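Colleagues,

Please find the record for the two-part complex below.
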Amino acid sequence: MSIEVRHVTKRFGGFVASDDVSFVAPEGQVTSLLGPSGSGKSTLLRVIAGLEPPDAGEVYITGSDATWVRAQDRGVGFVFQHYALFRHMTVAENVGFGLVVRKQKRSEVRARVAELLRLVQLDGLADRYPAQLSGGQRQRVALARALAPRPRVLLLDEPFGALDARVREELRAWLRKLHDEVHMTTLLVTHDQEEAMELSDRVVVMNRGKIEQVGSPDDIYDQPATPFVAEFIGSTNRLEVKLDGDRASVEGHRVDLPPGVLQRDGSGESVAWYVRPHEVELRLVSGRGAIPSDVVRIMRLGWVVKLELRLPSGRVVLVQQTREQVDELGLAPGDLVYLALRGAKAFPAAYSI
Amino acid sequence: MPSSEATAAVRIGARPPLRPGAALGRVLLLLVPGAYLAALLLAPLFAVVRAAFAHGPLAFAAAVSSPLALHAFAMTALTTAVAVVLNTAFGLAIAWVLVRDDFRGRRLLSGLVDLPFAVSPVMIGLMAMLLFGTGGWLLPATRALHLRVLFGWPAMALATTFVSLPLVVRELVPVLEEAGIAEEEAARTLGASRWQTLRHVVLPTVRWGLLYGVVLTTARCLGEFGAVLLVSGAMPGQTETATLLVYRLLEERRDAEAHAVAVVLATASVALLAAMKLVESRRNREHAAEGAA
């Protein structure tokens, strides 16, 4: 029940939405297509669903070539960002639509609709019209409708994009729970990295119609394969580093190679280190490998405290500490503080996004 | 959409109290268009009705139930029926193509659809004569089929169809545009064929717009005169529609009978107008109910 995309290319005029893309969404898992808008992830999903024909390449669903199978015969469940519920039908009619058009018996349709409405916890709303529901309820109806004909795979196109933050989080947790019950091969398109990280077993990071990296949520966070992934997933600071033999210097200050960075990384004399906000340690006194900086701003977000520090060159670095750490140092804006790197990921400096 | 909600709230909310001078202004504002419409629309209607019954209800009944009058009503019904059926089917197809397809010449096609409104019906009649009359381009084809087009009901129906072509299309295009394509795509991924999608998703979505277009088309067809006059030959009892009959009766100075037939036509139009308003209010109510769906 896997989805396999092989060398799919799709152009719209001169714009290449999907450029020779290949990946696999394994059976029974949730795979996310994650990328900024315009990265081609939605196009790819529509190609898989049969809503757009690819210019080249093949789509395999459950091991068989579905590239030229009509959308209505593909057996995919598709959930749209803006629900796309049939506005003139009740909730029950919406959910039953996929069964009615397949000419299933009335009693079977009724039983399956009831079963799905229970699954998405909307039992009492069968006779309502979509306009009478909240956004979160509509999206659950859309999900029930997509699942009703027992599709082979489930495709979700920015399913929570139109909802407000709290509903989005609730639905996300609920969807993950639902998946753990149903175990359907699921492909989710999102631009929200938190959503992708929380829901997926596997993340496919896309940029400009190409795949940047495929891996588990931990993989892409801890081991970004490209500077794009390092910058797109979580926040990060880019520091330009000069290498001279076995010495490294940042902004003219000699530093030790942080853990995770090898001498050969970058291999030229100019590399960039991508340092996560929490991979920085702050000190009040100068010492080996410490870079001086000014505290510009302190943002207290409960347990987490974010600090903006300005290096002598004027470059601003974002640092994240716990409240305890900051209180211990007694920092205030304008203070001088020294930062030491606790980790980084090195890439050639020539790269720019 | 908060802005539309806000305007809706303003519309529903109570009117603010008026300044003393403003009340007079409002009365004037109502009176002027009221008088204008009364003079232009109601007075002639009243005059026609009065004239129709000038010789009493029996004369009226005799005028509208004479064999020639009945035949004229039947011809009007026939040409209208053909035009409505054709323009509903093809209007749906044209609107669909204009909204859902992107191709070279789409704007040109969109402009062409409005041509019947821009061109005088008399010219349309002339064009039909050039196509189907003596030496016309299509005459050999219709001859081969033993079909008498010009001066027969086919040409009359064709001219009426042509004249009323844009109405259904123009009603449907904005409705289809607003509905968007997502519901149709959803239907396809759920296993619906094109036919099932049309029947279960598209038609219910556009039903009020379509009905409104059909009613408008019917009203336009009932009143068609110029194009039909030219292509029919206006032969009494054969190719004479109700409007043509009114014209001939007036020419023959049988005013009372002409008025009687005209009153029947006007009654049909008023009934259609009422139907139109009913459709409109139902549509507005459902739009409000379907709201942001």
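Residues 125 and 133 of chain A are 9 Å apart (CA to CA).

Comments are welcome before we finalize the supplementary table.
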